[in-house]
């Protein structure tokens, strides 16, 4: 028995007060998690790069996050003269709120969440699509060409990658037969959905990296090209809102992904072990997920915008549609579940083969368009 | 700039879908320009239509400064041309003065000079590998990996010459002081560490599908075009021509060294080949240093003992072609008597290599323009002199 049920009315209060308490709890948790994610990322990435990372602020630099926050709050909030005032100032909130809304429906343990929606997954799709509005606002409102390029790149990228993201989740939803995230976790008590739908997992992971602008899809914020992209003009607290958004969405996606694919709080112990274990499981899975993101970030270079787009439209999208079709046939005709693993696994192998084959081919000895367009003759 | 239109919106027919090119200013303060280079890109969407490079932000009047200083005093300025390979620049400068004044150099000093020059070549190429990885977008990992070996090379320089980046170690007629006692041991250990470092970077970058996909077939250059633009060094070699002044016109003790000019049958001078060329050259530099350590006379003078207190040179002129880290580092010296050169001229390889930038960049994407600039491996100290 759980000591108190988070799913029911908390502390027996009025509904609105109950909701406020839950939101405050989640916001506090999120802020702390995000602060320690930045610290964790700096430490982990430093180890990847043969460095030490923060060491000065407190033992092993554990208070670095607070020092950063203090510095950012104390900084001057600069608005460029040719920025569009309200668009510029509201953009950080417009990016932050959707990401925060995602956290409201995530089940951290059985029935532990601010609200348990029957259409939880649908809510996540719907709300995540709004994130892009804030980014375009920041890109257009800053009055900076780097920001404009970053905003436009972000718009193109996020809209494109939302499709394979949603399709891959839809494939899982077909297998689960529900959009309720809590129930989805419960269904995975004996085997996580990654075993049934490995292709959907790969597509989701790729598209997720793209949605969050993490490497190798950090094209909208490319440090070495457009120096930070859409938030290049922001400073102080508004800049930290963008950082908060980035890390909050990373955490949100990690929990969401581990609920959908890795069994969330349910796998492998089921419901019997109590909410403490369930919270620990969610935490462990999301940390593993985040570590994978860090690992990828430190290792791989950035794709080019056209390679990114063609990868989405020519590889990820057809594969996810094929997977939906296969799932449909298997589920409608009640074929055994092993077939789901087989078809999706074959798709996953195909995806990896495509990536490897594309680069392993011999380089073509041809001169690309550059000289022709410059009017320079080459022999 | 406002997103709310203040005037009536045009219909597509009225506007005729006319889009205007946008100019983007990149530099002089920009993480990808590796110094204070500035280029103005005119872009149509993401595609570069035109590129206008601006240089001169780091101009210090090197040639004039040298003309106003004693031959020995002026050497400190030459470190600061290709500041990633100070030893190599000094080497070229002292070679020019020695050739002008007809001064002999002890054999041990020649070997020491070659070791130092090759170490600085490795140093410079390491920075290229690291910075290029960062340009392509690997979040500084390659940069820090390259930094480890560079720090060790600099530590060795510090032990030998007393300074890390601008050692001013060479002297007209030799080198400033003999090597420290444990130098050979440390240098051999360093070579092992360097080889490991090159392999690490090779695995990190060349082993990565995205990196190869970004770099292959990007901005290729034919040998004829490279020669027409005066391009030298690794960029010229990456077009398939085996031209290296250390082989073609050996100076110092390079004629006794066994090393190869890296070559592949499918070299086409694209960004990947430039990267590959520098990576492969570093192994050859390691070979040269090893041979120097083996063959070096174990004792003897390192500085010509018959040098006058003040170096006065008769009328004459000299031109030294030196295989610098970026290409042909040419030093022209002219004397009309006295202790100062009448005219000094530096033919800096980075400056000539940079002239290829515009035609390489046009027609590529903005992201590619950055890595094309990175692949040219310019040093602004050398471009702006």
Structure overview:
The complex is a heterodimer of chains A (379) and B (385). Chain A has one domain. Chain A has helices spanning 15-48, 64-74, 85-104, 120-128, 131-141, 145-176, 181-187, 193-196, 198-211, 223-226, 236-260, 274-299, 305-332, 338-360, 370-374. Chain A is built from 15 helices and no strands. The longest helix of chain A has 34 residues, at 15-48. The N and C termini of chain A lie far apart (80 Å). In chain A, α3 packs antiparallel against α4 and α11 crosses α12. With 385 residues, chain B is α+β, with helices and mostly antiparallel strands. Chain B has a single domain (61-384), classed as Cytochrome-c3 Hydrogenase, chain B. In chain B, the strands form 3 sheets. Chain B has a 3-stranded antiparallel beta sheet with strand order 1-2-3. The two termini of chain B are 40 Å apart.
List keywords for this structure.
heterodimer; A: mainly alpha; 15 helices; globular; disordered N terminus; B: 385 residues; alpha+beta; Cytochrome-c3 Hydrogenase, chain B; three-stranded antiparallel sheet; 16 helices
Name the strands of the widest sheet of chain B in spatial order: 1-2-3
Q: What coarse outline of chain A follows from CA principal-axis ratios? A: globular
Structural class of chain B: alpha+beta
H/E element sequence of chain A: HHHHHHHHHHHHHHH
Mean pLDDT of chain B: 86
Radius of gyration of chain B: 23 Å
Taking pLDDT < 50 over at least 5 consecutive residues as the criterion, the unreliable ranges of chain B are 1-5
SS element count, helices of chain B: 16
Q: What is the tally of beta strands of chain A?
A: 0
CATH class of chain B: Mainly Alpha
Q: Uncertain runs of chain A with pLDDT below 50, 5 residues or more?
A: 1-5, 362-379
Distance between the termini of chain B: 40 Å
Count of separate structural domains of chain B: 1
Query: Would you give the CATH topology of chain B?
Result: Cytochrome-c3 Hydrogenase, chain B
Instruction: Quote the beta fraction of chain A.
Output: under 5%
What oligomeric state is this? heterodimer
């Amino acid at each position: 028995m759980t000591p108190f049920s988070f799913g029911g009315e908390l502390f027996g209060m009025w509904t609105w007060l109950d909701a406020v308490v839950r939101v405050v709890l989640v916001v506090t948790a999120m802020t702390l998690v995000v602060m320690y994610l930045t610290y964790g990322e700096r430490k982990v990435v430093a180890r990847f790069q043969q460095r030490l990372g923060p060491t000065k602020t407190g033992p092993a630099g554990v208070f670095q996050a607070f020092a950063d926050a203090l510095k950012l709050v104390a900084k001057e909030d600069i608005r460029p003269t040719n920025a569009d005032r309200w668009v510029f100032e509201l953009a950080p909130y417009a990016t932050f709120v959707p990401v925060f809304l995602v956290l409201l429906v995530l089940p951290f343990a059985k029935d532990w969440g601010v609200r348990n929606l029957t259409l939880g997954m649908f809510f996540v799709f719907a709300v995540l699509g709004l994130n892009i509005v804030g980014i375009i606002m920041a890109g257009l409102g800053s009055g900076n060409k780097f920001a404009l390029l970053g905003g436009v790149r972000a718009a193109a990228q996020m809209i494109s990658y939302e499709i394979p993201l949603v399709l891959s989740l839809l494939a899982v939803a077909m297998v689960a037969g529900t959009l309720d995230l809590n129930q989805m976790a419960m269904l995975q008590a004996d085997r996580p959905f990654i075993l049934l739908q490995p292709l959907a997992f790969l597509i989701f992971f790729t598209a997720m990296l793209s949605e969050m602008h993490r490497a190798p899809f950090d094209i909208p914020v490319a440090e070495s090209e457009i120096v930070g992209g859409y938030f290049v003009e922001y400073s102080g607290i508004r800049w930290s809102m963008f950082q908060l958004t980035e890390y909050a969405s990373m955490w949100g996606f990690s929990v969401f992904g581990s609920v959908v694919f890795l069994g969330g709080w349910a796998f492998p112990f089921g419901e019997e072990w109590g909410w403490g274990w369930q919270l620990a499981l969610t935490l462990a899975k999301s940390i593993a997920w985040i570590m994978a993101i860090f690992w990828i970030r430190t290792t791989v270079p950035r794709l080019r915008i056209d390679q990114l787009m063609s990868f989405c439209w020519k590889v990820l999208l057809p594969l996810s549609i094929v997977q939906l079709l296969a799932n449909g046939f298997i589920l409608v005709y009640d074929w055994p579940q092993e077939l789901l693993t087989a078809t999706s696994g074959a798709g996953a192998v195909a995806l990896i083969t495509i990536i490897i084959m594309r680069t392993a081919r011999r380089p073509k000895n041809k001169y690309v368009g550059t000289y022709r367009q410059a009017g320079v003759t080459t022999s | 700039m406002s997103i709310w239109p203040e005037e009536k919106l045009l219909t597509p027919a009225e506007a005729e879908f006319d889009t205007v090119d946008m100019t983007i200013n990149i530099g002089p303060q920009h993480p990808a320009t590796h110094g204070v280079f500035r280029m103005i890109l005119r872009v149509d969407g993401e595609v570069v239509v035109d590129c206008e490079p601006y240089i001169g932000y780091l101009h210090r009047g090197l040639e004039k400064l040298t003309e106003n200083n004693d031959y020995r005093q002026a050497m400190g300025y030459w470190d600061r041309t290709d500041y990633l390979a100070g030893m190599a620049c000094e080497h070229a400068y002292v070679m020019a003065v020695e050739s002008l004044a007809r001064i002999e150099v002890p054999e041990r000093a020649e070997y020491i000079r070659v070791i130092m020059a090759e170490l600085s070549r490795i140093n410079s190429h390491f920075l290229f590998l690291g910075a290029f990885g960062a340009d392509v977008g690997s979040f500084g990992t390659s940069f820090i990996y390259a930094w480890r070996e560079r720090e060790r090379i600099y530590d060795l320089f510090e032990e030998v010459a007393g300074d890390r980046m601008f050692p001013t170690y060479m002297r007209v007629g030799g080198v400033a002081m003999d090597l420290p006692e444990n130098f050979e041991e440390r240098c051999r250990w360093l070579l092992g560490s360097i080889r490991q470092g090159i392999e690490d970077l090779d695995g990190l970058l060349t082993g990565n599908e995205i990196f190869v996909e970004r770099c292959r077939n990007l901005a290729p250059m034919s040998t004829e075009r490279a020669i027409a633009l005066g391009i030298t060094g690794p960029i010229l070699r990456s077009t398939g021509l085996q031209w290296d002044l250390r082989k073609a016109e050996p100076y110092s003790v390079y004629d006794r060294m066994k090393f190869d000019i890296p070559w592949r049958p499918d070299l086409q001078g694209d960004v990947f080949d430039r990267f590959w060329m520098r990576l492969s050259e570093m192994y050859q530099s390691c070979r040269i240093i090893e041979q120097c350590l083996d063959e070096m006379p174990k004792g003897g003078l390192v500085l010509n003992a018959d040098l006058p207190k003040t170096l006065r040179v008769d009328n004459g002129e000299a031109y030294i072609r030196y295989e610098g880290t970026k290409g042909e580092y040419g030093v022209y010296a002219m004397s009309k008597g006295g202790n100062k050169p009448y005219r000094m001229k530096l033919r800096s390889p980075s400056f000539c290599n940079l002239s290829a930038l515009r035609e390489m960049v046009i027609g590529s994407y903005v992201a590619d323009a950055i890595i094309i600039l990175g692949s040219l491996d310019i040093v602004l100290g050398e471009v702006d002199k």
